[in-house]
Amino acid sequence: MGINGKNSDVTVEIKDLKFTYPGIDGHPPPGSTPLIQDFSLTLHSSDRCLLVGSNGAGKTTILKILGGKHMVDPDMVRVLGRSAFHDTNLISSGDLCYLGGEWRRDVAFAGFEVPIQMDVSAEKMIFGVAGIDPERRAELIKVLDINLSWRLHKVSDGQRRRVQICMGLLKPFKVLLLDEITVDLDVLARADLLRFLKKECEERGATIIYATHIFDGLEDWPTNIVYVAHGKLQLALPMDKVKETSKLSLMRTVESWLRKERDEDRRKRKERKAAGVPEFVKPVDGSRVINNGWAAGRLNSTIAGEENFVLSSNRVLRQ
Ligand SMILES: Nc1ncnc2c1ncn2[C@@H]1O[C@H](COP(=O)(O)OP(=O)(O)OP(=O)(O)O)[C@@H](O)[C@H]1O
């Protein structure tokens, strides 16, 4: 049963998800506690789910798992009845779309592996994607207020971001995973984009999961809210339930949850200190390995050490 009590049209199903970032051998370091655990969630067609939680709670990790960027047991995560990691057609068909913040770090890439720091126009990028419905393309260009003559190596971060979002949304997705992509957008662009996305759910039955810390203009946007802390699901509620139980604004409601969590963490640390054990639980560091967030087997893991890490970050690997 999903958050809304519906049974039909299940689009996203997470069942007892457990995940640990792999070490260099592709396996979790021995003795490590899973980063994500006790996480189950069912979403339906038309759901707009806000994913909230403090920094480091696991939101990006969960979205990446859903987007097939990390391997998990295929029964733990189903998107449109399939496993995104194992069924790459889910992403390539455009049914499942992941728009993530790594674009911010790797500005050189705009999806479809197209470098955008070279002198290329917005038009060339957007019209370069084959098989797109011209009406949808025109609508997106309007919603994101894109000037097709922009040269992408010269525009502002926000303008470049608008082109990236447009490219990502060209195919009519069924499930969209958004990892805070509106930070660079101006107030108007953000509001128009959110309105467009809401329409996509209402008219086409798309499902969106949106991880964000920015609650401006979101009051009437989500249908559901999911709160994650320390990699565990804390709350999964339909918005009317949230409004029923809290008279506060959405932002204040989330703030109250996060404050409670932080106070609780501080209390636990104090207790640990008083008991003579280290305040912070040290993560298991089995093999001195840093994994830069890409699944094992994709040239991703690197031996710890700043020099190596810089040289083998995604930016370099993907050029
Ligand atoms: N590539 C990685 N390899 C190992 N551990 C990682 C990796 N990426 C993230 N982590 C760990 O996973 C935890 C969750 O990170 P994640 O990025 O999912 O959090 P988040 O909720 O998206 O945070 P934020 O709000 O800051 O974006 C972090 O505390 C970090 O220690």
Describe it:
It is a single chain. With 319 residues, the protein is an alpha/beta fold. The chain has a domain at 288-319. The chain has helices at 59-66, 89-92, 102-105, 122-127, 134-143, 157-169, 187-204, 239-245, 250-274, 306-311, 314-317; strands spanning 10-19, 36-44, 48-52, 77-79, 96-99, 175-179, 207-211, 224-229, 232-238, 289-291, 301-303. The chain has a six-stranded mixed β-sheet, with helices on both faces. The protein binds adenosine-5'-triphosphate (ATP). Adenosine-5'-triphosphate is lined by residues 21, 35, 53, 55-61, 291-293.
Coarse morphology:
globular
Structural class: alpha/beta
Strand order of the largest sheet: 5-6-7-3-8-9
Q: Major β-sheet, in short?
A: 6 strands, mixed
- Could you give the count of β-strands? 11
Spans where pLDDT lies below 50 across 5 or more residues: 104-109, 286-319
Determine Rg (CA atoms, Å).
20 Å
Q: What portion of residues belong to β-strands?
A: 15-25%
The DSSP helix count reads 11
Q: Which distinct ligands sit in these coordinates?
A: adenosine-5'-triphosphate
The end-to-end span amounts to: 44 Å
Tell me the series of helices and strands, N- to C-terminal: EEEHEHEHHHHEHEEEHHEEHH
Mean pLDDT, to the nearest integer, reads 82
**Approximately how much helix is present in the residues?**
25-40%
Protein name: ABC transporter domain-containing protein
GO molecular function: ATP binding; ATP hydrolysis activity
InterPro entries: AAA+_ATPase, ABC_transporter-like_ATP-bd, P-loop_NTPase
Pfam family, one: ABC_tran
